[in-house]
Write a structure and sequence with these properties.
Blueprint (H helix, E strand, L loop, with lengths): L5 H6 E5 L7 E5 L8 H8 L6 H7 L3 H6 L1 H13 L4 H17 L1
Antiparallel strand pairs: 1-2
The protein binds zinc ion (ZN).
The site of zinc ion has 8 residues, from α2.
């Protein structure tokens, strides 16, 4: 029997998409619910007018496919038209982490 380190169990777990109830997504702690890339795709493709935000969200599509946190931040922006500095920081950090992991 393999024991996973506690932090992996605590911070990452698989959850079924709350919309299609079909695809599984990796969820991190603090995330209330998870929606898969397929279900969020339409929303993610909405046009962004703010040039600096456009630049921020201009990352490889694969990143959005792999990471539900990045999707949620972008959708937050598309819904409410703004992000807090903290959210922007977290977004950049996550992108850099994916870059360095590859
Ligand atoms: Zn789904």
């Amino acid at each position: 029997m393999v024991f996973l380190p506690y932090y992996i169990m605590a911070f990452n777990f698989k959850s079924r998409c709350v919309v299609c109830k079909n695809n599984y997504i990796i969820v991190t702690a603090g995330q209330k619910y998870a929606v898969c890339y397929d279900c969020q795709k339409k929303e993610l493709e909405q046009k962004i007018n703010d040039p600096s935000m456009k630049k921020l969200f201009n990352i490889p599509e694969d990143y959005y496919k792999e990471n539900s946190f990045l999707r949620n931040i972008k959708i937050n922006y598309l819904r409410y038209g703004k992000l807090s500095d903290k959210q922007i920081e977290a977004f950049k950090k996550t992108v850099n982490k994916i870059k360095s992991d590859k």
